[in-house]
Amino acid sequence: NAIIRTEKLSKVYDRGFRTVALQEVNLQIPRGSLACIMGPSGHGKSTLLHLLGGLDRPSSGKVWLDEVELTSVAADRLAEIRARKIGFVFQFFNLLPVLTSLENVQVAMMLAGVSKKEQQERAAELLNLVGLGDKLRARPNQLSGGQRQRVAIARALANDPEILLMDEPSGNLDSRAEQELLEQIGQVNDQGKTVVIVTHSESVAAMAQHRIYIRDGQLMGNMDTTGENR
Ligand code: ADP
Ligand code: ADP
């Protein structure tokens, strides 16, 4: 019943010196769960998230998304799986500054072969859903941090992914914006999507049904908290 599974997943960066960022991590994330990845800074959490989403290749070991083992598929197929199945929200949002909210969300749909008109309609619908119906024509620099984060979430949901991966989404938000973010995340999860969040936030961790602890690139714990929090 795991939607994501890893086997001895390892990553070594070699840029003049070797950094073992991740060491033989075995984990499973149940379908439809809200999971968080926690641990000290610089210990391999982002690396793990990137490998789970097929944004980077492991040095050794394997990642399965459903029945597909990511290291065995070619780059173009991997890009297709990523676009169709996975939505990413990065810490610094990665919005394109010259584009409006609407256009930033539309961009995500361009590769999927959706018509321009459908792109616009769906982008507007998603932005309404995250409470930005009145900011469709605003550019990122005209939005608050919390609002940019919501554009990034709308963009991540554009292709109706099964999995939403978030890298410290509340890292740059004040507490009110964080609270709103938690509500958004809860809604997305309630729709049946699997959500995996790298976080230092206790409030995010408190919502999670599944907690993964990483230290020194190793799995310290992979805990199902169902019943404890829900
Ligand atoms: P965390 O997300 O827990 O802060 P990271 O996964 O970003 O940790 O980093 C784990 C280790 O790998 C750190 O020592 C970091 O410096 C190193 N690292 C991360 N990305 C790269 C990269 N692209 N090139 C070289 N080293 C990297
Ligand atoms: P949030 O609760 O979403 O973080 P804020 O209370 O920070 O929102 O912002 C309130 C209003 O001020 C919003 O409508 C937003 O568009 C506007 N705003 C916030 N930051 C900026 C900015 N740097 N430039 C222009 N408008 C801003």
From TrEMBL:
Question: The ABC transporter domain covers which part of the protein?
Answer: 4-229
Q: Name one Pfam family in it.
A: ABC_tran
Question: Which keywords, in A-to-Z order, does the entry hold?
Answer: ATP-binding, Nucleotide-binding, Transport
InterPro entries linked: AAA+_ATPase, ABC_transporter-like_ATP-bd, ABC_transporter-like_CS, ABC_transpr_LolD-like, MacB-like_ATP-bd, P-loop_NTPase
Q: What does the entry list under GO cellular component?
A: membrane protein complex; plasma membrane
One annotated GO molecular function is: transmembrane transporter activity
SUPFAM superfamilies linked:
P-loop containing nucleoside triphosphate hydrolases
Fetch the PANTHER family from UniProt. Answer: ABC TRANSPORTER ABCH.1 (PTHR24220:SF86), IMPORT ATP-BINDING PROTEIN (PTHR24220)
What name does UniProt use for this protein? ABC transporter ATP-binding protein
Instruction: Give the organism the record lists.
Output: Geothermobacter hydrogeniphilus
